[in-house]
Design goal:
elongated, disordered C terminus
Length: 639
């Protein structure tokens, strides 16, 4: 008997019934169809006088379940207790099971009396799609008992799996104490199966069943009735629990838990490449100890984070989003990208290469190069790097600068601990570091400067550090480190614990930024970038409108909505948002574009609230424009 359960929905049951009948007809299997009761479920009956192999029927049931969502496999996979109400039997919610096809009892009885050869079930299975047949095979052959881990023992009057009892997972607790859902029986089965895998006993489950907060065990505590759910008696509950627990233990013994693979057994190529780049960058602290070094380091870190999010070492990123991620200006990020793409006798080999220049609205495309430790000829010869046209040093820099004080660096580079981390761990690490680097406290004008940030980042999280340790980790000279420490201690970010030893200070970054009055610097910069984008998009849209034919027949100005009528929050064209692009009036008519007036109109759509803590995250931006404000990795796209 094929049971199509109404819990999947009447439309799903109707579609599944039609498809099941087509499959049975193609296999020349005779059958009858009955409506199980007033709810709308259907039963499809087919008789096989010679009997059916339970394993073959189980395989067929699981294969059909992948095609028919409403099919309940319980009666087909339970040869000892599987049963159903025949046509004409009363239903617990009222009414009775009625014949649908054929409608008369004599024809239905003749079909069942004649029956079908058992070989036609194999024809039915062979006619199923390949994916369905494979699912049925996996459901059967994947249930092999593993004696070393799934031996069944008797505890009291009920079975259990041998082994040490484990606590249930958070997901199991959510099932137990959360709402049972539409199918309370399926929720109870899932809970019992998890308890069986955790080596629980029936006594443990009885204690859980007595908990009034265990809403997931609703099927154990009550049953469906015409007027709602009716509480079960103690005898009914105990009988149901004992029967279902025995089934759960048997099923758990035949279904070994999947072995959890180590997270790094099959490393992600992109994650491995990014980890190698980050490890090489942390092993060369002197490279970032120059005046432009902090900008270069954060630019490289941000590009690594974007590459992790895109799962590609080649990504497209514009300088404004680069700026929002790092806390530096867009011009600084553009110069940092050019420096990172240069092979220089002071800075060492290039870290990135520009594979496609920016054009129009499309950002430049950058590729992260395999790391090469500067000064290591063996490493330089062993790494193959793609050929690229390096930017000349004269173009990459606007002024000269002194090399970093390498003589202060220890012979042993600091251990970064980046290699071997998973993609999520590396993403969390880079996100945290970039969030700290982009804080307003490090603003050059009025803040402490980004060089102080490198010293603070090296000292943060340690109970006590010395100037020698900080010098080795940052590449700065001890004199520079002492100057940074005095500044950080004066503003409460670090504190001297002992002579020449420093630890965390009493103030947070937000508190120190508020004292200096630099709160909102990053938010104002981000707002200006949003306005720049909107102005550019508005002007491009204006040009397209002016050069397109039939423009006077289209309505492109802002629509007025009657009072009380809400506008659908759909991202519309800039000209429909701001109107026609303003122009300066002249004696001969409209003159040149008035960008000052256009910027003023755009600013009205983006109110500035620099004192609000949400401004820095861009949460104040109106909904249609919020996607431009949030400078997070998902906004970048792989090239």
């Amino acid at each position: 008997m094929f049971d199509l359960d109404i819990t999947a929905g009447p439309d799903v049951v109707a579609e599944d019934l039609q498809r099941l009948r087509e499959l049975l007809d193609d296999a020349s299997i005779t059958y009858i169809v009955s409506r199980s009761g007033p709810s709308g479920g259907h039963h499809v009956w087919a008789r096989f006088p010679a009997g059916v192999d339970p394993t073959a029927m189980r395989k067929l049931a699981y294969a059909l379940a992948t095609l028919l969502p409403s099919l309940d496999t319980g009666t087909l996979t339970n040869p000892s207790h599987g049963c159903a109400r025949p046509p004409g039997s009363p239903h617990r919610h009222g009414g009775a099971a009625t014949l649908v096809a054929p409608a008369d009892v004599e024809t239905a009885a003749a079909i069942l009396s004649e029956g079908n050869p058992s070989e036609r079930l194999q024809l039915l299975f062979d006619a199923l799609p390949t994916s369905a047949r494979e699912s049925g095979d996996r459901a059967i052959h994947g249930r092999q008992t593993t004696p070393a881990h799934h031996q069944v023992a008797t505890h009291g009057d009920a079975p259990r799996l041998t082994g040490k009892r484990r606590a249930l997972t958070a997901g199991s607790d959510k099932l137990i104490y959360g709402p049972p859902g539409a199918d309370a029986s399926a929720t109870l089965w899932a809970i019992l199966l998890r308890c069986a895998h955790a080596r629980w006993t029936l006594a443990d489950v009885r204690v859980l069943a007595d908990d009034p907060g265990a809403q997931g065990l609703q099927h154990l505590q009550s049953k469906r009735a015409p007027g709602g759910r009716q509480p079960r008696s103690t005898a009914e509950r105990e009988a149901l629990l004992a029967r279902q627990w025995a089934r759960a233990v048997e099923y758990a013994a035949q279904t070994p838990l999947p072995q959890r693979e180590k997270r790094h057994d099959v490393p992600d190529p992109t994650t491995t490449a990014i980890a190698a780049i980050e490890d090489a960058a942390r092993a060369q602290p002197w490279r970032w100890a120059t005046p432009a070094g902090p900008a270069d380091r954060e630019a490289l870190r941000a590009l690594c984070l974007i590459a992790l999010a895109c799962r590609s070492t080649t990504v497209s990123l514009d300088c404004r989003r680069w700026s929002a991620l790092t806390g530096f200006g867009k011009s600084t990020m553009a110069a940092a990208a050019r420096r990172l793409a240069c092979d220089h006798p002071i800075d060492g080999p290039a870290w990135i290469t520009c594979t496609k220049e920016a054009e129009g609205r499309m950002a430049a495309t950058w590729t992260l190069l395999p790391p090469v430790l500067a000064g290591d000829p063996m490493a330089e010869e062993s790494v193959t790097r793609p050929a690229s046209e390096s930017t000349p040093v004269e173009v990459a820099r606007t002024q000269g600068r002194k090399p970093a004080p390498r003589q202060t660096v220890s012979d042993t580079p600091p251990s970064s601990g980046v290699l071997g981390r998973s993609r999520q761990e590396l993403t969390d690490l880079l996100t945290t570091e970039l969030k700290t680097a982009a804080h307003d406290i490090w603003t050059p004008r009025g803040g402490l400067g980004h060089a102080c940030h490198r010293t603070y980042a090296a000292a943060r999280g340690a109970a006590a550090v010395t100037t020698s340790i900080l010098s080795d980790e940052t590449g700065y000279s001890r004199a520079t480190i002492r100057r940074h420490l005095r500044t950080l201690c004066a503003h409460g970010l670090l504190a001297a614990t002992e002579p020449n030893s420093y630890g965390p200070g009493p103030l947070s970054l937000d508190q120190a930024a508020a004292k200096l009055g630099v709160n909102g610097t990053g938010a104002r910069r981000l707002r200006n970038y949003i306005i720049d984008r909107e102005l550019y998009a508005w002007w491009i849209d204006e040009q397209q409108w002016r050069t397109s034919p039939g423009k006077h027949g289209r309505r492109c100005l802002p629509r007025q909505h009657p009072g009380g009528q809400g506008a659908i929050p759909v991202r519309q064209r800039p000209r429909a948002t701001y109107g026609a692009f303003p122009t300066r009036r002249s004696r001969t008519g409209p003159g040149r574009a008035d960008y000052a007036e256009a910027a003023r109109r755009v600013r009205q759509h983006f109110p500035a609230r620099p004192d609000d803590t949400e401004v820095r995250a861009g949460l104040h931006v109106p909904a249609p424009e919020r996607e431009w404000a949030l400078a997070v990795p998902p906004t970048a796209t792989p090239a």
